[in-house]
Amino acid sequence: MSTGPGVAVQDRLAPEAIHAGLRTRWLARPLHWLEQTDSTNRVALDLARQGAGAGTAVVAEGQSAGRGRLGRSFFSPPFQNLYTSIVLRPATTAAEAPALALAAAVAVADVVAALAGDPGAVEIKWPNDVLLGGLKVSGLLMELGSEGSRVSHGVLGIGVNLNVDPALFPEEFRARATSLAGYLGRRVDRVVFARRLYEHLEAVLELCAERGLAGVLPAFDAHFRMRGRRVRVENLGGQTQEGVALGIGSDGALRLGTAAGETRVLAGDVTLSKEWA
Fold it and tell me: What are the pLDDT digits (tens) for 214-252?
């Protein structure tokens, strides 16, 4: 396989390298590697529609059209970060599915915190961004297929900024994003990170399957530092509302205190007050 100009073989996210010592039973088994693709979520969705089993994963060295929330793009330079998508076959309804994304955010936050060596520097910005030192280091995207009210398949996309130089971010992201290497001041082993993430993600998703959101909510809450902060929420229709984040409900909704009282937000994109001040 080509490794791209100036990229050593050992720096690739090769399945054989990730599988060496990988302690998962079903997640990332199998693991499909691509040097370049438009979107790992698009590839994984195609695999899911073709009958791929739970845990089938796609990893790419680069993406030309990485997907973010609300139709936004995810900056995906090659051979620097982790871009992966996993096929899920949850026994759940569409209304219960948001728990999977919150559980995945917990897994990413835990692994980033362990490598950063500073759990207090890592937080989850509801619903599924992970921040490091107040800046975005990871984004997650869940896409679902359904049969009636039941989820037939889900694809969980995860992008983590590992080694990209923050100075190379597009101008609109530069003030709001970082990378793990930029925070640590040293390069991160992408294979080791991927292996740890797949292992922890499997454990968190199994806990979520067994106990629902209640099983992972304490861990989510440990990384949730939005409580008491003023936020602006944009819903899927483009409407916005402002208020104070009060916490996360038992269904994963954001509890928002507004002038009219408390309201629940099931889905949307959050901007913290410091980001629009």
Answer: 999 999 999 999 999 999 998 777 788 899 999 998 888
pLDDT digits (tens, 9 = 90+) for 192-220: 999 999 999 999 999 999 998 899 999 99
How many domains does the chain contain in total? 2
Residue 133 falls inside a structural domain: yes
* Residue span of the structural domain in which 269 resides: 230-276
CATH number (domain holding residue 196): 3.30.930.10
Measured CA to CA, the distance from residue 124 to residue 158 in angstroms comes to 14
Do 79 and 174 lie in one domain? The reply is: yes
**Does 4 reside within a domain?**
no
Nearest Cα neighbor of 61 from 239, 179, 191, 222 is 191
pTM for the model = 0.90
Phi-psi region of 257 (alpha: psi -120 to 50; beta: other; left: phi over 0): beta
Of the candidates 254, 253, 235, 234, the one whose C-alpha atom is nearest the C-alpha of residue 244 is 254
Side by side, which strands form the sheet with 31-37? 31-37, 57-63, 82-88, 150-160, 135-147, 129-132, 122-125
